[in-house]
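Module 6 notes. Inverse folding takes a fixed backbone as the condition and produces residue identities as the prediction. Think of it as a translation problem where the source language is geometry and the target language is the twenty amino acids. Below is one complete input and output pair. Work through it position by position during the lab.
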């Protein structure tokens, strides 16, 4: 339950990151660069957030930290596709374009980080 609550607390932070991208980065940068910069700021936000809430999460071993990361990954991908498709009205093609690393889309790196962040923080705090 704590893991899901912590993830839910990240959602508004990620929405604010998206607002920052659209209002600050996008008017000044090409869309791809704004996406990449927003992904980087998202990685930083998740890292700091994970560090701060980690004691509350009660993760006692590396295996639990890895499970937490996979939980957050699943919740993030589910949210992205469900919200993106059924609330924002994006097409499946639009939703999948952020997964194309060859085109410079780095969303998969963010997803990799959200899966690894709890384990990395566990190891750094150990």
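Target side of the pair, the amino acids:
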């Amino acid at each position: 339950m704590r893991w899901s609550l912590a993830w839910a607390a990240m959602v508004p932070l990620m929405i604010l990151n998206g607002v920052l991208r659209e209002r600050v980065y996008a008017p000044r940068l090409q869309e791809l660069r704004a996406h990449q910069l927003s992904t980087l700021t998202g990685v930083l936000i998740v890292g700091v957030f994970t560090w701060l809430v980690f004691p509350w999460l009660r993760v006692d071993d590396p295996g639990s930290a890895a499970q937490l990361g996979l939980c957050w990954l699943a919740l993030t991908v589910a949210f992205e596709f469900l919200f993106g498709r059924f609330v924002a009205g994006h097409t499946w093609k639009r939703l999948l374009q952020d997964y194309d690393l060859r085109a410079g889309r780095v969303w998969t790196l963010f997803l990799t980080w959200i899966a690894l962040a709890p384990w990395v923080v566990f190891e750094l705090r150990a």
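Reference fact for the lab report: Residues 49 and 107 are 19 Å apart (CA to CA).
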